[in-house]
Amino acid sequence: MQSKIFWGCLLSTISLLTNSKILAQTLPLSPQLIPFSSSEGEQLLVESNARQDYFLLSNQFVTQINQAYCGVASSVMVLNALGLPAPESTQYKPFNIFTQENFFDRVETKKVISPELVSRRGMTLAQLGDLLNSHGAKVQVYHGADVDLDRFRSLIVQNLSKRDNFAIVNYLRKTIGQERGGHISPIAAYNQRTDRFLILDVSRYKYPPVWVRAVDLWYAIKTVDTDSGKTRGFVLVTK
Ligand code: CA
């Protein structure tokens, strides 16, 4: 029996070693992005004068449960970070917490868009705002076409300096040097020396959190979402 376990462990170890090159890994990052987990990325957070949201959001950081649920995962993080009244979770009964599974339980939420449709096509910026609103959050929606770089930067930086509100950004990955379509994730901090924002990317199987230049992110929110015919953008969310 002992030797069976031994051989089992040994075979598993050999299999892990031989498969090490094909284990799941995130995609390589473009040089224009700074990975948060690097020493430089850490330093940018230490220096940051606008990082209040980082601590609350990192407590709630989740991976999107399917490849179209970036908006749902981002919303769940922000709703939990705001401390809004949460529904009971089937998984964690009797505890109440927003999850990607119970996000659409409310009738008002399903009226905005169905979970089936979001699973297939994702959501637009306006739908993101309406979905958050259906859970009792107050939301301001900003399209990329309506804000210049200075206003974009100052609105987000002001938000990141206060703990009772949050910013979620809807951007085109390609514009910031990633693969490649539209995406949604919360912004957690700003570094004034390098003029970069920290994105807590909810597709954690694909990319790590990154520091992106404000100007690159601004160009990425000014792209047009073909589903809405409007530019992408960001939402500011409070209780
Ligand atoms: Ca804030």
Description:
With 239 residues, the chain is α+β, with helices and mostly antiparallel strands. The protein has a single domain (2-238), classed as Cathepsin B, Chain A (Alpha-Beta Complex), CATH 3.90.70. 37% of the residues lie in helices and 18% in strands. It has helices at residues 2-18, 39-47, 52-58, 70-82, 107-112, 115-121, 125-134, 149-160, 214-221, and strands at residues 34-35, 138-143, 165-172, 182-191, 196-199, 210-213, 224-225, 230-231, 233-238. The strands form 2 sheets. It has a 7-stranded antiparallel β-sheet with strand order 1-6-5-4-3-9-2, with helices on both faces. Strand 4 and strand 5 (196-199) form a beta hairpin. The longest helix has 17 residues, at 2-18. The protein is globular. The structure holds calcium ion (CA). Residues 52-53, 159-160, 162-163, 165-166 line the site of calcium ion.
Radius of gyration: 19 Å
Amount of helix? 25-40%
Ligands (ions, cofactors included): calcium ion
Architecture, CATH level 2?
Alpha-Beta Complex
Fraction in beta strands: 15-25%
**Helix/strand class:** alpha+beta
> If you average the pLDDT, what whole number results?
92
* CATH homologous superfamily annotation: Phytochelatin synthase, N-terminal domain
- CATH fold description: Cathepsin B, Chain A
- The stretches of 5 or more residues where confidence is low (pLDDT under 50) are 1-20
Q: What is the count of distinct domains?
A: 1
Overall outline: globular
Spatial separation of the terminal alpha carbons: 59 Å
Query: What's the order of the H and E elements?
Result: HEHHHHHHEHEEEEHEEE
The side-by-side strand order for the widest beta sheet comes to 1-6-5-4-3-9-2
- The count of helical stretches stands at 9
Oligomer: single chain
> What is the strand tally?
9
**Largest sheet, described in full?**
7 strands, antiparallel
CATH class descriptor name: Alpha Beta
